[in-house]
Amino acid sequence: MMRLSSILSTLDTLAPLRYAESWDNVGLLVGDPNADVTRVLVTVDYAEAVAAEARSVGANLVVAYHPPMFSAVKRVPHDALWAEAVRDRVALYSMHTALDVAPEGTNDFLADVCGVDAKERRPLRAFNGKDSEIKLVTFLPESDLERVSHALFDAGAGRIGAYTHCSFRSPGTGTFFGQAGTNPTVGQSGKLETAPEMRLETVVPIGRVSAVVAALRASHSYEEPAFDLVRLASAPEGVGLGRVGSIEARPRTEIIERVKKGLGLEHVLVAGPTEGSAERIAVAAGAGGELADDAMKAGADVFVTGELRHHDALALARRGVMVVAALHSNSERAAVRAFSTRLAKKLSGVEVRASEHDADPFRIV
Q1: CATH number assigned to the domain with residue range 106-127+238-325, chosen from the 4 options 3.40.50.300, 3.40.1390.30, 3.90.180.10, 3.40.228.10
Q2: Could you give the dihedral angle defined by the CA atoms of residues 198, 203, 209 and 213, in that order, rounded to the nearest 10 degrees?
Q3: What is the pLDDT of residues 50-80, one digit of tens each?
Q4: Which residue from 26, 276, 287, 349 could staple onto 20, CB 3.0 to 4.6 Å apart?
Q5: Is 96 assigned a ligand-binding role in the annotation?
């Protein structure tokens, strides 16, 4: 048994949320960080069969690669799977694009399958820095300090590597003048006031900024809490989406067979020339259309992905690039299973298993 907050720290070490894409919805989506966890189920998709499996094995945390909900939720559908998880007290966590860029993540796994040496590969698209971490600085009375800081932590702030609840606190003096109609928590409106305050600083993954700011406003006693959002340095070299690297020349047909064997598939989709040899391979787990141009610019002979738009496949084929498409989640599932094994080794006293019912929604008949 482990506290969920401790497991969250381990998950962030394996796939740091600070490098997830800004549009993504990663981290703890449902659940109490202070709850105890005894069983973890790891899956690509939190589908109905997987939800039933979680109930049958008694899992109280489901780690789903794809977020069970992407967009902001304004209403709670009674029959939504994630709503059932709330009622059943099952925590839901997603790492998605954080695992895509992480060492030993989905793209490194695909590169390994294709035989690209780890020393000979680089991201297909380097992390551009705009999605880096944010430092949040706010000012509050000392009586608010514990309530506000824990609200920020619960919303996703304060995680640095294997450590959670990270912050810095320092005392100071604040000044304000409340104009007509204001109702200050401390002092009076219409008068220049000075008040002892605490300065609270913590880090926030870019994808959690909105949730953390909402938690700040909800937990702060001031009518208009003051806060700063400061962009931090970009990711270190080597972090980014996809992978590309050179290999010793081998037949393109051999690459196809390596992908099928490495992902445990009987069939894949292939576009472009299959004759001749390949010396440079690019990979992008999931939907690879966004990285199709990057693959061409990187001089790839082969582009391995999950799915690709028709016209992107045509463009690659015209340039002599062979496309191998495994279907979206088929390109990710073996890597997620490998992730569950790595997670199990990190968590003592907690049973971790990969879902037996997780499957791509499409099948070839």
Answers
A1: 3.40.1390.30
A2: -10
A3: 999 999 999 999 999 999 998 878 888 888 9
A4: 26
A5: no
8 Å CB contact between 353 and 330: no
Tell me whether domains 2-96+332-354 and 106-127+238-325 share a fold. Answer: yes
Nearest by Cα to 268 from 307, 334, 306, 325: 325
Neighbours of 13 (CB within 10 A): 14
Q: Are 141 and 198 in contact (CB under 8 A)?
A: yes
CA distance 287 to 12: 23
Q: Can you give the residue ranges of every domain in the chain?
A: 2-96+332-354, 106-127+238-325, 134-231
Q: Is 100 annotated as a binding residue?
A: yes
66 is in an annotated binding site: yes
Q: How many CA atoms lie within 13 A of 67 on its CB side?
A: 20
Q: How many helices (H) and strands (E) does the chain have?
A: 11, 19
At 323, the pLDDT band (50, 70, 90 cuts) reads very high
- Give tens-digit pLDDT for 144-198: 999 999 999 999 899 876 678 999 999 999 888 888 878 877 777 888 888 899 9
Q: How confident is the model at residue 233 (pLDDT cuts 50, 70, 90)?
A: low
What is the homologous superfamily of the domain 2-96+332-354 according to CATH?
A: NIF3 (NGG1p interacting factor 3)-like (3.40.1390.30)
Q: How far apart are CA 198 and CA 218, in angstroms?
A: 18
Say yes or no to pLDDT of 229 above 60.
yes
CATH number of this structure's domain 134-231: 3.30.70.120
> Which residue reads 């992978």 in tokens?
243
**pTM for this prediction:** 0.75
- Cβ burial of 227 (10 Å; 0-12, 13-18, 19+) is middle
